[in-house]
From TrEMBL:
Gene3D superfamilies, per the entry: endopeptidase domain like (from Nostoc punctiforme)
Family statement: Belongs to the peptidase C40 family.
Domain NlpC/P60: start-end pairs: 79-205
Protein name as catalogued: C40 family peptidase
The keyword Hydrolase appears for this protein: yes
Molecular function GO terms recorded: cysteine-type peptidase activity
Disulfide bond is among the record's keywords: no
Organism for this UniProt entry: Profundicola chukchiensis
PANTHER family on file: MUREIN DD-ENDOPEPTIDASE MEPH-RELATED
A GO BP entry: proteolysis
């Protein structure tokens, strides 16, 4: 008799456990199904992307990445080229000015520009007035390192002097040149003498962004200077 009662008790206990496990499993399945329904509903509510739209998105992202990469390569190349030119220019510091001079014993402004840009394979004409016609025009507000800047020092309008921008700060632009009073030296464009005689600026094509060079083939000089500094 005791044996029979024991069997009945064990059976009831196992049945109770089995029911609880079943209910727990059922509850889990219900929760899982709800999550799945919500996810499916959300997916259905999203706008469908057609194959053409997907290709366009991939193409756009690729173009942006390629453009950014090209820009980074250009900036890196520009910094390297300018660094070489600036190193050469600084090696002339203290060299006396000599009209018509082309050596470290004495050099004039245009010959100085000729020699320092030559280290990067950039060929410039011999005189400043002709150097003012090479490359691409640049607005004064958009000057960058490596730009050629021109002045009228002995004439009101005629270009008679040239220098190279070596540093651009928020409120000041410094340039290096061979001047008649100090020889090869560094000056500020903020100085009243130089700011009053500043006339124009040019950027060698090697230092110009590809878009600026491309547009130079299509637009007038005035439009390039305004739209693509």
């Amino acid at each position: 008799m005791k044996f029979i009662i024991t069997l009945l008790f064990v059976g009831l206990f196992l049945g109770s456990c089995s029911t609880q496990s079943y209910l727990t499993q059922q509850n889990y399945n219900v929760q899982n199904n709800k999550s799945g329904l919500v996810a499916a509903k959300t997916a259905l509510e999203r706008p469908m992307i057609t194959p053409d739209e997907l290709r366009e998105e991939i193409f756009t992202n690729h173009a942006k990445t390629a453009e950014e990469l090209e820009k980074n390569i250009f900036v890196s190349s520009l910094e390297s080229s300018f660094s070489n030119i600036l190193t050469e220019a600084k090696s002339f510091l203290g060299t006396p000015y000599r009209y018509g001079g082309t050596t470290r014993n004495g050099i004039d402004c245009s010959a100085f520009m000729q020699q320092i840009y030559e280290v990067e394979g950039i060929e410039l004409p011999r005189v400043s007035s002709r150097q003012a016609k090479v490359g691409l025009p640049v607005n004064k507000s958009d000057l960058q390192k490596g730009d050629l800047i021109f002045f009228s020092t002995t004439s009101k309008y005629r270009i008679t002097h040239v220098a190279m921008v070596m540093e651009v700060k928020e409120n000041e632009i410094k340039f290096i040149h061979s001047g008649s009073s100090k020889g090869v030296s560094v000056e500020s464009l903020n100085h009243p003498y130089w700011s009053a005689r500043y006339r124009t600026a040019r950027r060698p094509e090697k230092f110009a962004q590809p878009m600026m060079v491309k547009m130079s083939e299509l637009d007038s000089v005035q439009e390039i200077a305004t739209r693509y500094p």
